[in-house]
Every structure is written in structure tokens, then in C-alpha cells.
Amino acid sequence: MSPTTEAEAALAASPKAPEGKAVATPVKETFALGRSLRVDVGNVERELAALWTRAGGARSGEGGEHGDTQTPVMRAALWTLVLGAHGPASLKHAKGLVDALVTALPARVIVLCQSGDDGVPDGHAEEIQATIETNVLGGAGHARTLYSEEITLTGYGRGEEHFPALVRSLQIPNLPTAIFWIDPQMDDAILEQLLPVGDRLVVDTGRCLSSAELGRLGTLVSLVAGDHEIADLGWMRLATFRSLFAGLFDPPVGSRPLAEATEVRIFHRPDNRASALLLGAWLGSQLGWNEPGLEGTPQSTGPVTFTFQRSGAAPPVRLILSPDQGVCGTSGIVGLTLSAPSGLFELRRTTENHATLRLPIAPERVVKLDSHTDAELCAAALGPQGRDGLFPRVLTLAARLAATLSPSPSSVPAGARPFRSPRRGGR
Amino acid sequence: MKTDESSTSSPAADETWGGENPLRAGIVSERVPEPSTMVIFGASGDLTKRKLLPALYSLTRERFLPSRFAVVGYARRPLDEDAFRADMRAGCDEFARRRPVDDELWNGFARNLFYQPGGYDDPASFTALRKRLEEIEKNLGLPGNRVFYLSTPPSSFATIVRNLGVAGLISEKDAPFSRVIIEKPFGTDLRTARELNKDIHETLREKQIFRIDHYLGKETVQNLLVFRFANGIFEPLWNNRFVSHVQITGAETVGVEGRGGYFEQAGILRDMVQNHLFQVVSLAAMEPPVTFDADAVRDEKLKVLKALRPIPEGEMRHHVVRGQYAAGSVLGKKVPGYREEPGVAPASRTETYVALKFFIDSWRWAGVPFYLRSAKRMPKRVTEIAIHFQEAPDMLFGRQGPAGAPARMRPNVLSIRIQPDEGITLNFGSKLPGPAMAVAPVSMEFRYGTSFGLEPPEAYERLILDCLLGDGTLFTRADEVEASWTWISRIHEHWARETNEPVPTYPAGSWGPVEADKLIASTGHMWRRP
Asked: For residue B312, what pLDDT is reported?
């Protein structure tokens, strides 16, 4: 069976190698691997069952890699994952993510692809198309596990309207559902209808290229945070940085330098201002900084300075976001310094995977600063990090800071409309 | 410009700026201990090189250790610091979980790695150690939190702890903290365990003592608790109404590996059963704790150990079988018998195999036999606990057995594999496809290693981290140790009296002596082949 789209063909030709360290390197069978099988939209479940049967009967020479021994295939699934994609490039990214993710996390994956076309193109009679594929994990002498089922639904024209109902019909009963809405171009109207059947929403502030996009995401998160667990890949990319920086103020240093800080400077790559805003908002949120004010008129690419007030007699603190061309890993953050009367506290990335910690009372120290792949972050987003109660509060402040940088309504993407908060548990 | 809203409400904002670090608040999965120093006694030994330093390096790599952290190796052997660092680097190169070792990270780690030579019974050496620690802590900005890891011969444990106290190295306060990790074996019988507890309690509070049993650091052992108490379907079956019997197996393929002298004094009952396997038994048989804190869990484990029914002296041979391996073949290699191993007496009576049948006198387990066996030179390396459920009360399906009696079906067995290939398997009967009503056993298997795609940490990593965090849940408490020795020591005392009783042998590479098969067959059961 041939791949049905160009993107899928490209994907089929590429090996499905795990990308990250958290992803296991299992023995994978060639059975159905890398092949998208076109199926009728109404028969997805039946066609998947047929694939299972084939997998169970696969012997050497028929795609199985277990010699003459027939070993049963068991399904292992921890989640139903729903991913949004917009257009072929976005689909390719989403499918690559899924390929790396599912070896770490057995799941049924439903990829919803908005074709990006206004109408039904030539040769696509249906408004919606479905393809399926399965991946089997096995090892010599071991049982074989069907560790992922991927269902790709591509909508043309008004076909996207069927997505929510199809997702509802394809969810695995009694397993949690996570919705990955990481492409900022995806239609919020679809998300609105999906959220009631989802348990966790995963977004990515790291893909917000403008302050306006960050503000829009902030609005979305503030509306749904009460009813859904929210994970943000951008926030998770900052996790190691935050943890290491926090460690500078462990005993015996203590929190006094934080209370007496006069200036905090965040060095970030020019196109990662959203990450810097999030990091600055975290500090402001945790340290009780109030009444943020913007100094001067911000330039789209230049440094930005905010001034915050603090309670009591403490003097104001300046937060400076400085574009920097240094190495930044995947977070976009190059370094972070805090100036206090007792000295300078600094965390700065020195290479892609290391950073240097400096503080007044101890020699500088090199620490590991891994850059996690998106697949690793997605897997982590389904764990405890995906229930980070701090994130919505921080994003709210970051969105407010972003609003001071791009107050013009015209910067909001065309077609965006107010998002209505859905409630979970719908059918 | 300024906004008109008063900004964030922070938990930190209204608090005084004391020692609490407001940036730590709210960080998910944050298990980073405070800056501290670990002193390893016995630093020139094998355990330090193979396990402890690789674990500390891995913890550093995974950022579970604070960025300010120092390690001081302490041993009798005169050694300069560079040589010690090189030796530890070699250990990490060979044994670290993540290899190759990251040079840049190692260099930073090694700068805070020190060596202090000294005796274990020399108070002046401990005074020198204190001065060295104070100097290191001052230079590295460390607050004085200390963990002392006793990886020495057990005969030195009490002396080291006493000298730590005399030298003023133990803080009675919780901040900065002083904690001591003590390796096994903790005593060789009830009397010596009690004496050791008494000795170290003269210097340390129980809360400061972390008796390590690396089995408790294994993910699957911890998963026993999750499996039992986070799932609603198993616990209702976990009792004498539904469980026929329980089998625990701790099998090794290795022999004494050049440690004949040590093993002659220990035997498999001390080496494996009193500590590792009894911990597994207590976790498998305990009642649900009221909370998941250290003492609540250990209280419940202790109740199991205290409920072990003592074996009457006259009944010992019906409940205990020991054996020694004779020459044989293991994993395709010929191996000598135990008595032919270096350091082993030609007429040795030390057991390399033991099988036990015992009962836990509690409402939950009344009448359920527990069978435990542990041995060296078995056909395969495996540690598992298997819950054998009672058979269906009436056999509707299947062939007729002899003389028209209904054939017996294989009972449902839930086996929890602790090592290797950690996982859980449930066996049940299923109809074979076809017109006949034929039933075949099938196995539903969960494999820990392939289901999550995440590499579990080494047991020592988890346990060292827990100690630094002050969490004693996975360490054994004084009363637990004494309770298990109370039961085990009776067997040793019996063996000491019965010097004329022959010690059965089994060929290396077999599943043990026939006497062990008879022991379990006497109650209508048979050993599982794991």
C-alpha cells in the first residue's frame, strides 16, 4: 500500500529512529512500519483490528522478525493523544514527533491535519481522508507489543468540522486523552469542541513568535486552566534553567539576595522573547514583584526593560530582556544574572549542553544543561510536569508583560475570535 | 509605561526573607537536596568504585544533586587526591549508567572530590577529618550538611559512628543535618544486631540512621506498593480467601566469586534472605499504610515480620531445607562445587541454598503458606514473587483426568519479576479458537523496561538521593532488622545444634536439592519454574 500524501511519502522513506535519550531503542518490526494505509473514514477501527490480526500472525518472511515462532501481540496504551497540524509541513513535524514519542509512550495517536486549502483540491473527492499505521515492538523470545496506532485525519474544506466527532468515536475507553495544540495556526474553534473530551491540553509558548501570540495563548490558558491540566513545552524547556538558578539561593546563601536584587537580566535569542518573558514572569511571580512598568519605547528586536515595585521599603527592581547571539539550546535562553548588594549570581549556557554557575561565595561550577527534544518534552508533558500549577499564574503575568509590548489589537491574528471556555465531560 | 493593575500574589511576597528559597516553591518534581557533603568510609573499596561514585556522578548528571556538593573519600590506604580521582573516573567510565562520561561535567564534579586517609579506630584521624570538612565547606560555600556512608567491614560500623560523635562530626540539629548510611550486613544474628543498634544509638538518633538494602532501591520493589495500593482490583484478592500460596525466589547463577572466606561466615540465609528477600516479603504481605511516609510504611512492614510464625524446634526439617551446590554446569560453563571454591573449608556446612516454608499469622494471611528459596549456582538469575491464586471451584472445561476425575487447570498466577526483565505477568486460561471447548493458559505481560521508554535509575542512585532528602521510607529501621533476625536466628541456632545432620547437595545449574521439592510437595504444591 502506498503512502497517500507527499508528506506521508517523505515520512515513509525516512527511518523512524528515536530522537531523544528518553526514548527507548527497541527492536521494531517492519510490519506496517512507516506505511500509511489509506482507509475509509468510517472503518478506522475495523481496519486497525485487521492490522492487529496481521501482526499477530506475522511470521518470518511475512514481515515479522521472530523466526518461525508465532508470538502473540498485545496492545499497550497509556493515552489517547490528539495532535493538531496545519498543512503538509506542520503534518510532517507532528508525525515526526509522534514517531519519536510513541516508543516512549504507548498510545493511540490521532493526528488532525487541516489541509490549509480553502476548498477540496482536485483528486480529493472526500472532504476528509483517513490513514492508519501501527508499530510493533518486540524482542527475541519476548511477547510483542503493539505500542502505537496512528490515525491521521486530513480535512479538506469543511471536512474539518468532522474532527471533533471522529475523535470522540476513536478515543480508547477509560484512558486519558491529551490534546497537543502546539501549532499556533490551528483553529481554536476545533479546540473548543475537543476540550470537553480531553484531560490535558499541551501548548507550546516556544512557538509564539510575537508578543501578541503569547498574549493570545495566555488568554486561552486562563480560560481553560480551571477545568483542564495544562502543559506548556516552552515552560518545560525552561525547567532546568529555573531549577539551576533557584539552586544558587539554597543555604547558606538563602533568599536575601533575591529580596535585595536591584537588577535581573535575561539574555535570550532575538526570536525567543516569549521565553524570556516567561522566565521573567516566573521571577516576578515568585518574588512578589508588583506593578510592572515598561521603560522607554520597545523595539521589536532590541532590549526591553521593565521596572517592578516591591512591598515595603525595598527599592524597585529592573528586569532587562537582552537579545544575545550566544548558544541557547532549545529554550532560547542564553543566560540569567541577578545583581544584588552581596554580588552577582549568574547562570550562563557555555555550550549546547553545559552551563556555568557563578555566585559570590563559591568557585564557579560547570553543570549539565540538556536540551530536550520535543518528543521528550511531549512525553514529560504527560507526566507530573504536565500538571504544573505554577504555569498558568506565570503565563498570566507573561501575557500582561507581552501586552505592554504589543498593545495594538491589529497584531492579533486575523480571524481570531474570543475563545469560549468549554467544560470537560461532554460527549 | 505602567499598568494599572497591582500585580502578582506570591506566596513568598508576604513572608519574611528567612532561609526559605522562594524560587524553589512550586517547581514540579523537585527533589533536589540542600547543598551538602558526603563522606564515604571505605572509599578505596570495590563498592565505592563500582556503585557509589557512578551513582553520585549519575545524580549530578541528571541534576538531582545540588550544584554545590562535595564528596570526601576516607580510607586507611594512603592515596593522593589525583590518584583517587583517577580511580573514581575509571569506575565511572566502566560502571556509570550513562556512558561515556561527560568530560566537562566530570571535571567540575572531580574538583569537589577529595580524599582523606585515616584509620577507623583512630580519634586523631577523625579530628583531622573534621578540620578538612570545615575547610572544604568554607571554600565551597556549603552549609555543613553531612552524610557519612559506611562502606566498610561491618566490624568497623560501631567504632566509626562512635568516633564521628567524639570528633564533633555529628550535628544533633536537623539543620545542618548529619546522617549515616550503613551498608549490610547489619549484624550476623539477633544478638549482634541488637548490640550494634545499641552502640550507634549512643551517638545517633534513629532518624539519622539509614540502613541500606539496595533491593529497596529497585523500581520494581517500589512498584509493589504502587501495584497493590494504587489499583482497586488486586487488593481485594490479596488475602487467604483467594490466594493459595506465595512463592518467592531469589536465584543467582554466580557462585561465591572469590569471596569464599566471607560466604563461609555468612551463608545464603544471612546474605540474601534476612535482608533482601524478607524486605520483599514484608512489602508484599503488609497492610496498606495510613500514609506514604517513612514510619507509616515501616510500621506496617514491621507487623509482617512480627507476625512470622516461629518454627517449632521439632518441626524445623519440615520447614527449612538447606543445600550446597556440587560441581555442575551453569550457562554453558563447567563450574566447581562449593567445597572446591577457594577459601571454602573442605567439610563446610555453610548453605548456598535455602528453602523455607512459613506462615504469617495475621487475618489476611492465616493459613496461606509462603515458600521462599534463595540460592547460588541456579540455572538462571531471577528474583520474583509469585502469587498463586486458588483454582476455580468447579472445572467445567477441559479433559477428564485419571479415573474420571476432572483435569486440573493451571491456577492463575500473578508474578512480579524484580530482576532481571522487571515486570508483572498474569497467567489465565483462555478458550482456544475452534469448535472444541479447549482451554489453554495464556500470559499477559507487562514489562517495565519497554512500557515507559525511560531508563530507571540504579538502586544506589535512588537510595543516596532519598538519604540526602531525609526520606527513610526505603531504608530499614532498627526494629525491622531485629524482628527479621529474631526469626532467622532460630534457624541458625538449630543448624548449630544439629551438626550431624547432612547438608544436601544439588548440581550447579539445577533448581536445588530434591529435599526442597519434597518440602513444598508435602502441602500439595510445587516450585514454579521462573
From this structure: 92
pLDDT, residue B506, reads 95
Q: Does B3 touch chain A (CB under 8 A)?
A: yes
Q: Please indicate if any CB of chain A lies within 8 Å of the CB of B28.
A: yes
A7 Cβ contact list (under 8 Å, min separation 6):
A88, A89, A91, A92, A95
Yes or no: say if B270 and B262 are a contact pair by the CB < 8 Å rule.
Answer: no
pLDDT of residue B362: 96
The complex scores an ipTM of 0.77
Q: Least CA distance to B26: which residue of chain A?
A: A390
Average pLDDT over residues B308-324: 94
Facing residue for A286 by CB, picked from B12, B140, B454: B12
Cell numbers that stand for A182 in this block? 502546539
Minimal Cα distance from A252: which residue of B? B143
Which residues of B carry out catalysis?
276
Cβ pair A285:B442 closer than 8 A:
no
Give contacts of B 62-81 with A, CB under 8 A.
Answer: 62-63, 66-68
Residues in chain A with pLDDT < 70? 1-37, 55-76, 116-126, 137-147, 407-427
**Average pLDDT of the residues of chain B:** 88
Selected residue of B21, B71, B145 to mutate for chain A interface (largest A Cβ count, 10 A): B21
Biggest CA pair distance of chain A: 79
- Choose the closest CB to B3 out of A291, A367, A389: A291
For residue B219, give how far its alpha carbon lies from the nearest alpha carbon of chain A (Å). 17
Partners of A366 on chain B (C-beta within 8 Å) are 104-105, 107-108
What local confidence, expressed as pLDDT, does residue B454 receive? 67
Mean pLDDT of B241-249: 96
Contacts of A312 (CB under 8 A, 6+ apart): none
**DSSP structure string for B12-73:** TTTS--SS--GGGTT-TT--PPPSEEEEEETTTSHHIIIIIHHHHHHHHHTT-S-SSEEEEE
- Cα–Cα distances in Å, from B294 out to B163, B216, B520? 28, 13, 35
Q: Reduced to 3 DSSP states, what percent helix, strand and coil does chain B have, rounded to the nearest 5?
A: 40, 20, 40
The CB density around residue A196, as the number of other CB atoms within 10 Å, is 16
Testing the interface with B: which of A243, A311, A378 to mutate, by most B Cβ within 10 A? A243
Question: Does the bond joining B185 to the residue before it have cis omega, within 30 degrees of 0?
Answer: yes
The reply to whether residue A254 touches residue B30, judged by beta carbons under 8 angstroms, is no
pLDDT-wise least confident of A113-122, B346-355, B415-424: A113-122
More confident residue, B160 or B20: B160
Could you tell me the maximum CA-CA distance found in chain B, to the nearest angstrom?
96
Pairwise CB contact (< 8 Å): A311 & B442: no
Supply the pTM of this predicted model.
0.78
- With CA atoms as reference, report the closest residue to A347 among A235, A244, A234: A244
pLDDT of A30 reads 40
The verdict on B32 touching A (C-beta cutoff 8 Å) is yes
Spatial contact of B373 and B249, defined as CB atoms under 8 Å apart:
yes
Cell numbers at residue B132, please?
Answer: 578538612
